[in-house]
Design a protein that fits this description.
The protein is built from ten helices and 13 strands. By secondary structure, the chain is an alpha/beta fold. The protein folds into three domains: 141 residues, 3-Layer(aba) Sandwich (Rossmann fold), CATH 3.40.50; 63 residues, no CATH class; 70 residues, Alpha-Beta Plaits (2-Layer Sandwich), CATH 3.30.70. The strands form three sheets. It has a six-stranded mixed beta sheet, sandwiched between helices. A four-stranded antiparallel beta sheet has the order 2-1-4-5. The radius of gyration is 21 Å and the shape is globular. The protein starts with a strand and ends in a 5-residue tail after the last helix. The relative contact order is 0.14.
């Protein structure tokens, strides 16, 4: 499977504060990945770096192996994003906005506009001026604009912030049903996005605390308890999904890891199923402070 998004050792300092500290992760083609964390964790800063609004102090971002710093326009041509500032023209109505926006892209026709209008449930709002919109209506129009060119990669920074719960469910369902699109979206609330994501990345005070994978497969989360944590962590580095000795692998691979540890004279006391739910993990991280 191809890697659609590759983030490597990204750091960013704003003023005297290190907002992002050595961030690295991969997102595979057609995955839906959630980035979660409390306010101030660095989510929006990371998204602004990934979409070219901020320069990268350290590290690299790649879209399908295209380096964002070295081939800026080519990399950004692969993505569509929901940015903080409105990209809609405030004196136009919503459909007029979509029609104007489509001129920036090739292959976008009237049918595509109607499909997007249906996805964000804006049929009843057609013809109204943008300046009369509620925050939720503005949000929905911006989401529509990100979908209009059927992007390969969709990056949404807290897209559900001002959308009511009923329409949240509809939008999430439609995001999940997007074809041939890799999605990275952020939220302050895990419960909003957990159901549609293949993977959850937990961000806390500018660092990745954990990555939880949700897949229907024969893999499972287990944690190793050993007598020499430091050496075991080095040997298991390619398999651990967090700072502990927790892995997400098949029974066969777990057995291989166990044998490798024993061959290196590391006693394995037990291998147990990881009990923390994703929700508990999120709450633990959200309440954790770095010193």
């Amino acid at each position: 499977m191809k890697i659609a998004i590759k983030v490597r050792n990204v750091s960013k300092t704003i003023g005297k504060k290190k907002v992002l500290d050595n961030i690295s992760f991969d997102i595979y083609e057609n995955e839906i990945v959630g980035l979660v964390g409390k306010n101030g964790s660095g989510k929006s800063t990371l998204f602004k770096i990934m979409t070219g609004f901020y320069d990268i102090d350290e590290g690299e971002v790649y879209y399908y192996d295209i380096n964002l710093k070295k081939e800026y326009e080519k990399a950004l041509s692969l993505i569509s994003t929901l940015v903080e500032d409105n990209n809609a023209y405030k004196n136009f109505g919503d459909k007029k906005n979509l029609e104007l926006f489509k001129t920036m892209f090739k292959g976008v026709d009237e049918q595509s506009i109607e499909e997007i209008v249906n996805i964000v449930e804006m049929e009843k709002l057609l013809g109204k001026k943008f300046k009369t919109y509620s925050l939720g209506m503005e949000e929905r129009l911006q989401i529509a604009n990100t979908l209009i060119n059927k992007p390969k990669i969709l990056i949404l920074d807290d897209p559900l912030n001002n959308v009511d719960k009923t329409k949240c469910k509809k939008l999430l369902k439609d995001i999940k049903n997007l074809k041939n699109t890799t999605v990275l979206l952020s939220s302050n609330s895990l419960s909003e996005i957990e159901g549609i994501c293949n993977k959850i990345i937990f961000l806390n005070d500018g660092k990745i605390e954990n990555i939880k994978i949700k897949e229907n497969s024969n893999k499972k989360n287990v944690t190793f308890e050993v007598d020499d944590f430091s050496r075991a962590r080095l040997l298991m580095n390619d398999y651990c999904i967090n700072e502990n000795l927790e892995v997400y692998e098949t029974d066969e691979k777990i057995s291989e890891i166990n044998k490798e540890l024993m061959l290196n004279n590391i006693n394995v006391y037990r291998i147990y199923d990881s009990e923390n739910t994703i929700e508990k993990e999120f709450l633990n991280i959200a309440n954790k402070k770095r010193y």
